[in-house]
Amino acid sequence: MVGFGFAAMAATHPFLRSKRILLLESGPKTQYKKEPNHRNRVIAVTPISRRLFEGVGAWKAIQDNRFQPIKRMKIYEMGSNAKLLLERSNPDDDMGYIVENDLIISSLEAVVDEAVKHSDTKDYPGSMEVMHNTVVEDIQLPKSYDAVNMPRLLVRDRAASSKDAIPIEASLLVGADGFRSAVRNTSGIHTVGWEHDQTAIVANLNLPDDYDPTIAWQRFVDTGPIALLPNEPAHQPSGIVASIAAAVKLAIPKSSESFTPPKILSVDPNTRACFPLLFRHSSFYHAPRVALLGYVLFCGKKVSPIDRGLLNLFTCLFRDAAHRILPLSGQGANMGFGDAASLAKHLNEALSEGADIASPRFLRAYTSDRQRSVVPMAAFVEFIQALYSTDASLGPLEAPSGSVLMGLRRLSSTLGISDAALSIRGLGMDLVDSNNLVKVQSNPFACLLS
C-alpha cells in the first residue's frame, strides 16, 4: 500500500490479518504529543467511523488523549432569519467527534506497530511491515491479468546510506497516496473535476469558558461558509473559515438566544493555515480492463480527454487518490474510512471464495459499493456550494465599476434575482427544519451516522 494514514485502517482490518502487507510512507513516523494548544487540523469522525476505529483497536488511544463529542449542529445564513438545527433522533446520542488529525494517525500507527510486533503469530498469521521516509521512484504495472505478472515498484529509503532503489513486487497495489496519486496516474485511471477558485482558512480560536462545546456551528455568508467545530474548552479549532476576519467579526443574531454562537475572543498566533477548494473524482476506484475514449461532460463541465488504450490492472484507490470533495462536516475523511473498510471486506470475500486478491470481479464490486456512497454525497456538497455561490456573482453591488461582474449584479438587482435566491434558500432551510424526516435525510452526517 502506497501511503500510510487511511491505508493503515485497511491494513489493520481483521479481514486482512492473514496477508503479507507492506505500507510505504513518504514522511517520518508521526509522534503525537498532547499539548495545551490543539493542532489546527481536525477531523469530524462519525459514529460509524468510530466503530471502524474500535474494530481495529485504534479508538482507545484517542479516548486516552482527547476528543470532543458533538450533539447538535446549528446552521443559519446571512441575510435571512432562516436556521436549521441538526441532531440525532435521540438528542443524547452523539452526531460525531472532533479529533486532531495527528492523534488519528498516531493511533493507527500504534495499531500497525502491534501488528508488526506480532506478525506470524496466532493473532496475526500474516505479516505487516512499514517503511517510512520512502520515495517511490517508479511503478511498473502489467497490462494483462495472470498469476505471473505483478506490479513492480522501485522504492528508495531517504534515510539509507545507499541511493539504490529497492525493487518490490506485490499481488495488489493500493494507492492511498493522496490527491496527486502516482498510483492513479500510472494506472491511467481517469478523473473528472474542477477548482472552485476559493481558499479555505483554518485557525484555532479562543472562546469564553461558558460556551457549550457539544454544539457545532455553521453560517453561510457571501464569502463562503464559516464553521466552528468545537474541541475542549479554551482552545477551539475552527472548521472551514472562508475569512478569518469574517470569523472574528461573526455577527450574533438578536432574534433567538438559542441560535447565539459563542463570542470569539481571539485567534491563536501561528495557527492559521489555508488550502485550495476543489472537486475531483475518479471514474473508477480500481483499474478496469477497458478505458473509455474521448471527452466526458460532467455536471455541465467539459473535462480533459481520457487516456486511450488498455488500462493497467492490479491496482485500486481510496481516499484522496479516488475522490476529493469540498469539506463539509468532515465527510471527505469519513468517506476515506469507509473506503478502507469496504476494500478490506471485498478483498476478504475474494480470498474466501478462492479467488486472487486482485480479482477484477471483487475490485469492481469495491468500486460499485463505494461510489454508491461517495457520488451522492459529492453531488450534495457541490449542490450546496452552487446554491450559495449565487452571492458571489449576484450579490451586493461591490464589484469594480464597469466590470462584467458589476453588470451581472446590476441586472440581478433590477430583476430581483439575488433576493429571490435568498428567499428560496431561507424557505428551504425553514421547511427542512420543520420536518424531522426531511431533516434526517438532508443531514450531511446522515449517510454515515447509522
Tell me the name of the CATH class of the largest domain.
Answer: Alpha Beta
Q: Per CATH, which architecture of the largest domain? A: 3-Layer(bba) Sandwich
Q: What share of the residues lie within helices? A: 25-40%
CATH superfamily of the largest domain: FAD/NAD(P)-binding domain
The computed structural class is alpha+beta
Number of strands: 22
Counting structural domains, the number is 2
* Sequence stretches where pLDDT stays below 50 over 5 or more residues: 234-257, 290-311, 444-450
The CATH topology assignment of the largest domain is: FAD/NAD(P)-binding domain
Overall geometry comes to globular
Helical stretch count? 13
The strand line-up of the biggest sheet is 5-4-14-15-16-13-17
Give the radius of gyration: 23 Å
- Mean pLDDT score: 76
- Biggest beta sheet attributes: 7 strands, mixed
- For the termini, the CA-CA separation is 29 Å
Percent of residues in β-strands: 15-25%
Summarize this structure as a short list of keywords or feature phrases.
single chain, 450 residues, alpha+beta, FAD/NAD(P)-binding domain, 2 domains, 7-stranded mixed β-sheet, 3-stranded antiparallel β-sheet, 13 helices, 33% helix, globular, disordered C terminus
